[in-house]
Amino acid sequence: MPKNKSHKGLLKRIRVTKTGLVKHMRCGGKHLRSDKPGARIRLFRNDSYMTTAEAKRLEKMLHRRLRGRNAPRTALRRSPSPAESKARKEARKAALAAAATAAN
Q1: What is the pTM for the complete model shown?
Q2: Residues 67, 10: contact at Cβ < 8 Å?
Q3: Tens digit of pLDDT for each residue in 39-71?
Q4: What domains does the chain contain, in order, with CATH numbers?
Q5: How far is it, in rounded angstroms, from Cα 43 to Cα 47?
């Protein structure tokens, strides 16, 4: 089966931060600047972050989880390490054994 390839054109236009925020440049700031006020031109220099709904659309093109500026950091689920999953399994077994003992 072929591998999933991320959309290269999209990757050239955005940056995904470590926390999953999608950073992009604002539109309309590259040319025809003479008729725009200075405050608006200065605003174009600042990067902006995509909202959650917009970032959600990009997930299909990039084949990875993203989060928007108004989504909590917990929206990205981190895979547990092998030690964490082993500890979780042992805790579950201990809870089942305690429940079985209490039932008898």
Answers
A1: 0.61
A2: no
A3: 999 999 888 999 999 998 998 999 988 888 888
A4: 8-76 (4.10.410)
A5: 9
How many residues are there in the chain? Answer: 104
Taking CA atoms, 66 is separated from 72, 77, 80, in Å, by 11, 10, 18
Per-position DSSP letters for 66-83, written without gaps between them: ---TTS-GGGSPPPPPHH
DSSP 32-92: --TTS-HHHHHHHHS-EE--HHHHHHHHHHHTS----TTS-GGGSPPPPPHHHHHHHHHHH
Dist CA 35 CA 13 (whole Å):
25
